[in-house]
């Protein structure tokens, strides 16, 4: 009998097992030059409190190109999923060792190997914009997740790099070659942003932002006020790549972005953040959930705009006399008990108890600045 394949110790069989594991000692952080004059970089930060270099940058890898605009990035294999079908275990077993860095502006995707020295990642492959567009019909890669059949790469743009439809490109787990567009029937979906799933229910969910031309140089106020940015969620047959259902939150709910499904594999709910409501400049968090054979959604958190002196506001906000919270990122704790909400506009990080997912309770907040306020970091 052959020996069982080796398993990377950072693969966990349950959320509880992941939470009980030793903390990470290194963190990977991307840095980019907005002007495009310098190369973006993958940096390595020491996060071990017992280290003499705690809090310092201990590794730095410049990209071979300029103007990539690194944004989200991710691993070749996911800690929480053990092993998806299609992974090649290899002699050393499946490892969470390769980082894929999409360039949201260039459409390059750089692949870095974090072994044998995790503090000095090395470039092993660059997926070109031409390969992405010719094989999948997409551009402007944004978010990636390792999943069944391959690595799922959500893209904001179509092949031309300026307009839609955006969608998901499928990459080979092992070679990182672009295989094809994941969708077989996209239905009404045109705008793209995030993608996540409920694996045990054969469901993938996608959200909406805008096409590259709508976000390339910042938000376009006329498009925002006329409800042209994304305001829908889409539900798909994960195995078939087929669109099943669209839920429109309403044109006033602009930019339906970060998806956070429950970590419990048997759960059938998740949270999504909406950047701004054109009705009152509030931000919001919505919960999607299974309702019979369909999916439904409800608003569970409203974060109101904060009054401000018009003299302190940028021109676009002066007529409103208020600062919109502008929810950007959200994070759900591994045990599904706490939701963290980043309010970019007001400079606030909020913590909600979501042990009852339909009735979140705010239990904490940290102020970090914002459009009109500047405060010292709370650790200083």
How would you describe the overall organization of this protein?
This protein is mainly beta. A hairpin with a 2-residue loop joins strand 18 and strand 19. The mean pLDDT is 92.
What's the multimeric state?
single chain
Low-confidence stretches: none
How far apart, in Å, are the first and last alpha carbons? 58 Å
Q: Kindly state the number of beta strands.
A: 25
Helix percent band: under 10%
Order of helices and strands: HEEEEEEEHEEEEEEHHEEEEEEEEEEEE
* Annotation field: number of helices: 4
CA-based shape: globular
How much of the sequence lies in strands comes to 35-45%
Mean pLDDT, nearest integer?
A: 92
Major sheet: arrangement of strands? 4-5-6-7
Largest sheet: 4 strands, antiparallel
Q: How would you classify the helix and strand content by structural class?
A: mainly beta
Q: Provide the number of structural domains.
A: 2
Topology:
Elements: H1 15-20, E1 26-31, E2 39-46, E3 57-66, E4 74-75, E5 98-102, E6 109-113, E7 122-127, H2 129-136, E8 138-147, E9 150-158, E10 167-171, E11 178-181, E12 195-198, E13 203-206, H3 212-215, H4 221-225, E14 232-237, E15 242-248, E16 253-261, E17 269-277, E18 283-291, E19 294-303, E20 306-307, E21 322-323, E22 327-332, E23 338-343, E24 348-353, E25 361-367
Antiparallel strand pairs: 1-2, 2-3, 4-5, 5-6, 6-7, 8-9, 9-10, 10-11, 12-13, 13-14, 14-15, 16-17, 17-18, 18-19, 20-21, 22-23, 23-24, 24-25
């Amino acid at each position: 009998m052959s020996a069982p394949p080796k398993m990377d110790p950072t693969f966990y069989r349950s959320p509880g097992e992941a939470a009980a594991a030793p903390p990470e000692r290194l963190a990977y952080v991307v840095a980019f030059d907005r002007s495009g004059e310098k190369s973006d970089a993958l940096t390595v930060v020491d996060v071990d409190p017992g280290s003499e270099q705690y809090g310092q940058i201990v590794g730095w890898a410049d990209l071979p190109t300029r103007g990539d605009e690194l944004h989200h990035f991710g691993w070749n294999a996911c800690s929480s999923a053990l092993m998806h079908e299609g992974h090649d275990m290899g002699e050393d077993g499946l490892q969470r060792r390769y980082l894929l860095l999409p360039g949201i502006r260039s459409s390059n995707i750089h692949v870095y190997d974090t072994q044998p020295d995790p503090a000095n990642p090395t470039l092993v492959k660059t997926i070109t914009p031409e390969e992405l567009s010719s094989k999948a019909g997409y551009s402007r890669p944004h978010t990636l997740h390792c999943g069944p059949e391959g690595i799922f790469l959500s893209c904001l743009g179509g092949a031309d790099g300026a307009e839609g439809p955006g969608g998901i490109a499928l990459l080979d787990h092992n070679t990182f070659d672009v295989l094809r567009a994941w969708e077989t029937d996209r239905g009404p979906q045109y705008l793209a942003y995030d993608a996540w799933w409920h694996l045990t229910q054969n469901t993938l969910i996608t959200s909406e932002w805008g096409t590259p031309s709508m976000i390339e140089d910042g938000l376009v106020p006329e498009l925002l006020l006329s409800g042209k940015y994304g305001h829908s969620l889409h539900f798909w047959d994960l195995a078939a790549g087929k669109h099943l259902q669209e839920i429109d939150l309403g044109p006033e709910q602009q930019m339906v972005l970060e998806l956070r499904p429950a970590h419990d594999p048997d759960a059938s709910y998740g949270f999504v953040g909406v950047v701004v409501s054109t009705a009152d400049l509030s931000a919001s968090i919505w919960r999607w959930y299974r309702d019979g054979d369909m999916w439904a959604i409800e608003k569970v958190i409203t974060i109101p705009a904060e009054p401000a002196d018009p003299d302190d506001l940028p021109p676009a906000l002066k007529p409103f006399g208020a600062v919109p919270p502008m929810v950007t990122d959200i994070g759900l704790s591994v045990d599904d008990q706490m939701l963290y909400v980043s309010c970019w506009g007001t400079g606030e990080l909020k913590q909600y108890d979501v042990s009852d997912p339909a009735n979140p309770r705010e239990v904490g907040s940290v102020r970090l600045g914002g459009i009109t306020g500047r405060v010292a970091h709370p650790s200083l």
